[in-house]
Amino acid sequence: MSDCIIPEIKESEEEIIAIRRYLHANPELSLEEFNTSNLVARQLEGWGYQVTRDIGKTGVVGSLSKGDGKKSIGLRADMDALPILEATNLPWASTVPGKMHACGHDGHTSILLAAAKYIASDSCQFNGTVHLIFQPAEEAIGGADLMIKEGLFDRFPCDRIFALHNMPYLPTGKFGFYEGNFMASADTVKITLQGYGGHGAHPERTVDPIVTGAALIMSLQSIVARNVPPGETAVVTVGTFQAGIASNVIPDSAVMELTVRSMKPEIRELLIRRIQEITDFTARSYGATSEIEIYDSYPVLVNDAEQTAFARQLAIEFFGQDAVLDSVSPSNGSEDFAFMLQQRPGSYFLLGNGEKGEKGGCMVHNPGYDFNDEIITTGASFFARLVENYCR
Ligand SMILES: [Zn+2]
Ligand SMILES: [Zn+2]
User: Fold this and answer.
1) How far is the CA of 366 from the centre of ligand 1 (A)?
2) Which residues bind Mn(2+) (predicted)?
């Protein structure tokens, strides 16, 4: 497949791999990507991009126009790492204990930089404007949403947008495209149950938030079983339940946190509404009161059919039919490029990082994961082809 790689991108491979390994060794968590975004901005400036810093706190946009064409395209990479203690023992392993590029965002940033260098060179011909979007805080907080709220698409209008994610368990350098609802919505729901504490020997003089909570947890399971139509995707997981410190004390309150996932906006609304109703009625039936907070919400990621077909066709044209996987399945994971896809038509696709048991075949968010440098030139060449073929 190497003959599908753009020669100028192949020439800069070593330089970009060095950047990727530097980023890997120096990971920064969500909204703390100061060093990373500074490196990105300096590289882009050196290649002649007009660079805007500090959009969405640490986000960077590099813009470049050629010709007098009016078309514009946005390409996005994420820059943040995860709060994980790395266990790879690689020479470029994280130098910061408890922080790690375990999702390959170091690789995504490097892929977009490799594309950026070529796009700015005289070898790359296009007619229009390209906006390279380096976003912070994909793993938490929602950096894409922050950038949009600071006028991302008003300041940098994009007709269409694209982003990729490396994917372990998929063969190295193979593309996965999916039209429609591809990644789940995610909401964190925190429920606080307020009872009335007292002596464990005299429950009749208390309102027990633990019993209330136990009943609530079981009732919440009925939402997926009894309210969501069979055949739809939905998850209601109670991930934490905290209450009490002694066997003979009935506590005042109990707190639980849920993650709620779905593949359709209307199912997401249904799940949230039923959680609110069941929590309210269950708490009251036990004499308690309840409070609900919803945060860290990511919408369903919806790939535009036309843009996805365009990208798939282009991948087949340049990399061959074999380079494009016949099918990839929607995922219950979530991805905040979904916010950008609510604003502009586009597509989010997968790039195989290596099959299980082979190089790159350790799952993301695992302490043993590493991004596979072999796919940098593939991803960068494809990003460049998207620009050249849309902005004609
Ligand atoms: Zn991740
Ligand atoms: Zn990721």
Assistant:
1) 10
2) 103, 105, 139, 165, 365
